[in-house]
Amino acid sequence: MIDKFFASAQAALADVPDGATIMIGGFGGAGMPVALIDALIAQGARGLTIVNNNAGNGDTGLAALIGAKRVRKILCSFPRQSDSWHFDRAYRAGELELELVPQGTLAERIRAAGAGIGAFYTPTGFGTDLAKGKETRRIGDRDYVLEYPIHADYAIIKADRADRWGNLAYRKTARNFAPIMAAAAKCTVVQVRETVELGALDPETVVTPGIFVRRVVKVASSLRKAA
Amino acid sequence: MKKLDRNQMAARVARDIPEGSYVNLGIGLPTLVADHLPKGREIILHSENGVLGVGPKPATGEEDEDLINAGKEPVTLLAGGAFFHHADSFAMIRGRHLDFAVLGAFQVSVAGDLANWHTGGPDAIPAVGGAMDLAMGAKKVFVMMEHLTKKGESKIVERCTYPLTGARCVNRIYTDLAVIDVKPEGLHVVDMVDGLSFEELQRLSGVPLKRLATAA
Question: Does B176 contact chain A (CB < 8 Å)?
Answer without folding.
Answer: no
